[in-house]
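HUMAN: Please help interpret these tokens:
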Amino acid sequence: MLALADGTTFRGIAFGADGETGGEVVFNTAMTGYQEILTDPSYSGQLVAMTYPEIGNVGVNREDAESRRPFVTGFIVKEYWDPASNWRAEQSLGDYMRDHGIVGIAGIDTRALVRHLRTHGAQEGVISTVDLDPARLVAKAKARPGLVGVDLVREVTCAEAYDWDEPPWQLGGAAPPAASGPRPFVIAYDYGIKFNILRNLVASGCRVRVVPAATTAAAVLAQKPDGVFLSNGPGDPDAVPYAREQVANLIGKVPIFGICLGHQILGLALGGRTYKLKFGHHGANHPVMDVTTGKVEITSQNHGFAVDVESLRGLAELTHQNLNDRTVEGLTHTKEPLFSVQYHPEASPGPHDAQYLFKRFVDLMARTKG
């Protein structure tokens, strides 16, 4: 059974691990890439419902993981298919979830759930295979603290710094050609970083070192990086004040590129504000306009908070805007070498429309250094 904090309940079929789990219930509109979604640390603390009806068809494999393990709290689907029908599959989705203790529910009307969340907003919920009493489960959902004010970054960040040199995966295993010229040295803050971000930085010619979220600005600058990258991550940016403080100390001293939670933290470090969205943006088909060129990108997104555009007046400039709800999707500074986007240019899953942003970061580092 799935129970929401407002009293709505759904009965379904259990798959994955047995047990009980809770989190904020959100929906993802991507048609493919459920393994990448499961292993995106930005989903820590959330129960993810897939709008695409058939999930599990292609199984799972080691190459498609976006982090060291799955981070979703629970998984909600319309139809679960246990036998994997793909030559790359190494395990069924259900067995994978069972191995990692992730509770799933299938066979519910996900269209009804999505319409409910769009109308009433994302909210806390509980999935249980052991307690099927609606009243008790609703009470448990109501008692959950929610994501506002909760620091989830500490749960997903790396324990110590490490270097990354793996390029993007290609069919057949052939590595892309090495970038010519000097390689800029980038330090990437891990707020819940996805592997494909690191692969794209390497493909752009960067030497990459990943550091824990609480690393001080002084420790970063002591390594003399050519640029600093601020990664994606879960939850409320206001609940990570140590990140905001360190980024504020880096502004003006080194080129900065942020995405997702990194974008929100940069907005806070510049003096702006953030707020929680009604049901967030989760999926691989969100239209975003680059207001500097008028071009529209189809983007991959995963966030429940946004930067308040009015709070940035005189502090930063809007560069990208969501065409669905006009929320901030990108910002830059008129004087300092920095920019950020709310969406995921590395995709995985999703389209590659925004991969040019990695080259923009490399060009920014080259101009600043020159």
